[in-house]
Model the fold of this input.
Amino acid sequence: MVDFGGWDMPVQYTGIIEEHKAVRGGVGLFDVSHMGEIEIRGPEALALVNFIATNDAGKLKHGQAQYSALLYGHGGFVDDILVHRVADNEFFLCVNAGNQEKDYEHIRAANRFQAEVVFASERFAQLAIQGPKALATLQKLTPVDLSSIRYYWFADGAVCGAPARIAHTGYTGESGFEIYIPPESAADIWEAVMKAGAEFGIKPCGLGARNTLRLEAAMTLYGHEIDASISPLEAGLDWIVKFDKGDFEGRAELLKQKERGVSRKLAGFEMAGRGIAREGYPVLIDGAPAGWVTSGSPSPTLNRNIGMCYLPADRANAGQAIQIVIRNQPVDALVVETPFYKRAK
Amino acid sequence: MYPDNFRYTKEHEWVLVEGDAGTIGITDHAQEELGDIVYVDLPKVGAPIEAGKVFGSVESVKAVSDIYSPVSGEVTEINQSLADAPETLNTDPHGAGWLVKVRLAEAGQAQPLMSAADYQDYVGAEK
Done:
């Protein structure tokens, strides 16, 4: 068990590689109840969401979700979030565990709209059922037709008779569902999902597999690829920044960055030499300091050692030779296209 | 679980002393804590190692950990098979997963280390 944002969480249940492969090949179950939830509602709920988050929540239909970012005025991340549109005037935000109080205060401080901001984390536990057999597993426990929920959409219904928000989202690079449920029902639903997934070899999965899965999918993790010193344009998240939707926090600074170009960019790499890159290791180009590793791990799916790093923007393209300094030894690596892993559709 | 003829360190290494030869590895508790081991970094044959000092590292999917030497001496052999099969450290840490053999600088230096019973108590208390 490790302390993770004040939660005691297992790094692994049976082994990271075994858990990782269960998600890629069958189904895995994650307890992600540590994630935070914030509700925004009122006549100007949309105006508030669009002011504090970079993506355009006005594009969302009822029952649709999007990835977005909370930024400081200087363009760095407060957090990366999921925005769900529950109704015209009601939004449901899923935020990172370690950032939830900060996010809540940040949103409240920006709230000059007719909107109410509600800290809702204690009302929701969250389970993630992920993998090609996630749908078949969860379908046994809910009357909601899961095949009708498209990717990045959600439905309010019931799981095991308990009220549940069922979202077709995830952080693994596989298809799957994230369900928001009452904390008092969570233990029973966990047991029921494990039983329902038994025929598919379901495994309970810890933080370790969650990290290797998201890294193969090249999904960013707050505190690693993104933080207050990094902008979405540097992190390759241009696609969640909608300049034409009107003003939002950080817009002016991001516009400047866009016009003059960013100096550094996030890149994926594969080790060519022996060794595993880890967070914080220096990156060299032709022997000179060029950047730093944000995440690195063996990839259980690809059987290669992969990672992400920041590099000068003009050197961050696939094919660039770099060296990772592993315990004082430079080891060859190569910038590659991301994601490292993409599921077959 | 923990062989009686080994001595154990607080950093979770073991040493088996036979005459002036020592065999060093990591304990079952260590491999359990590390998880899936994917890479082992060992010194070269002939390298001196010193009790209480780092002489190599093992790396699991989640992290890299230093290995501390239980004894002082000179490396006479390294376990070559670990380069291709590091998972042996998970499956047989007290046997086929040994790391290095050393010629001891002096006899008796493993005696102050923990016995199997003491080590069992030590990891029991740590949990």
